[in-house]
Automatic annotation (TrEMBL):
It comes from the Bacteria. Coiled coil: none annotated. Residues 10-140 form the DAGKc domain. One of its GO terms (molecular function) is kinase activity. PANTHER family: SPHINGOSINE KINASE, SPHINGOSINE KINASE RELATED PROTEIN. Keywords: ATP-binding, Kinase, Nucleotide-binding, Plasmid, Transferase. This is NAD(+)/NADH kinase. The lineage of its organism: Bacteria, Pseudomonadati, Pseudomonadota, Alphaproteobacteria, Rhodobacterales. Pfam families: DAGK_cat (PF00781), YegS_C (PF19279). Transmembrane segments: none annotated.
């Protein structure tokens, strides 16, 4: 496993950029030009590979590792980052983060910039960090896994994006559009260390990004994540109006855990919703996964490039 250091020698590395041209505002050609202009000639080898579909991102990243590339740049949003991390986790390969998405929580967690230019700046002056990630039924996640209302929110969000374009306003509107139609809470059992807790709830999510949890105003969960744990939040609100009010408080960072959520922290959590398969959301994507859902934190599982010089933002830097 590569060792953390004060700096990373890009000139000695073979670099492959996996570019999701459909991410964010779909400026794939412009992003490709910027990558070539700023990174070609700066490493031992440089290549850009463009998966035809988002579902092929992980396969392309795995092939890049097999072809001998040392650094794989994930050029896309949080879903792209998670797909590349799935291929790189628990290998010697190093991941670089080039954000092009709407929220870019993973890039902001690592302080790698919030756009392509900022991500490239990090790659050009980086140090190596080894971080923990989350896993649910063998699938890597970087920010969160959600059950209940949130997968429905993602479906609504995609429809709103297609009609009105991608924006944070559209994303927040999708929250309201989905939650107003929620009628039936789900039965959920959370098991930690053999102890079961039973809930009737419309929303549950597991956080792995301290930055995202802080954005939502969930500081206690953020600290648990920094300590290496998973943070499970189970919404107390069952009805549509109560959920809408809670969602608006989340959007504006005013959520109080005791008012809106029960919090469970642990390194391993098992969730059973009483269904064979359930639609879940993970890092901005959605999948139908067979339960029960076994979640765990994987310490020191992913090698990533982070800024060599960290500005003081009041948050702990990746180690």
């Amino acid at each position: 496993m590569p060792q953390n250091d004060q700096s990373f020698d890009l000139s000695a590395a073979r670099v492959c950029a996996v570019l999701n041209k459909g991410s964010g505002r779909k400026n794939g050609d412009q992003n490709e030009r910027m990558l070539r202009e700023r990174l070609e000639g700066r490493s031992a080898a440089f290549e850009i590979r463009k998966p035809a579909h988002g579902s092929q991102i992980g396969k392309v990243a795995k092939q890049a590792i097999a072809d001998g590339f040392d650094v794989i740049l994930a050029v896309g949003g949080d879903g792209t980052q998670a797909a590349v991390a799935q291929a790189l986790a628990r290998t010697d390969a190093v991941m670089g983060v080039i954000p092009t998405g709407t929220f870019n929580y993973f890039a902001r967690e690592l302080r790698c910039g919030e756009d392509v230019e900022g991500g490239i700046d990090t790659i050009l002056d980086a140090r190596l960090s080894t971080i923990s990630v989350g896993e649910v039924n063998g699938r890597i996640f970087l920010n969160n896994v959600s059950f209940g209302a949130y997968p429905e929110i993602l479906q609504r969000r995609e429809a709103i994006y297609r009609r009105w374009g991608r924006s944070r306003v559209a994303a927040y509107w999708s929250v309201l559009a989905a939650l107003k139609d929620m009628r039936h809470p789900m039965s959920l059992t959370a098991s930690v260390d053999g102890v079961e807790r039973h809930y009737e709830t419309a929303l549950a999510f597991i956080g792995k990004s301290a930055f995202q949890l802080e954005t939502f105003g969930l500081d206690e969960g953020a600290q648990a994540v920094r300590d290496g744990h998973l943070a499970l939040f189970v919404a107390k609100a069952n009805g549509p109006m109560a959920l809408i009010r809670a969602a608006l408080r989340l959007a504006f960072g005013k959520t109080a855990r005791d008012d809106d959520f029960d919090l469970i922290t642990s390194d391993e959590i098992e969730i059973d919703t009483g269904r064979g398969k359930r639609l879940i959301a993970h890092d901005g994507e959605k999948s139908r996964v067979r339960g029960p859902f076994k979640l765990r934190a994987l310490p020191e599982a992913l090698n990533v490039l982070v800024p060599a010089q960290i500005r003081d933002t009041g948050r702990a830097a990746p180690s």
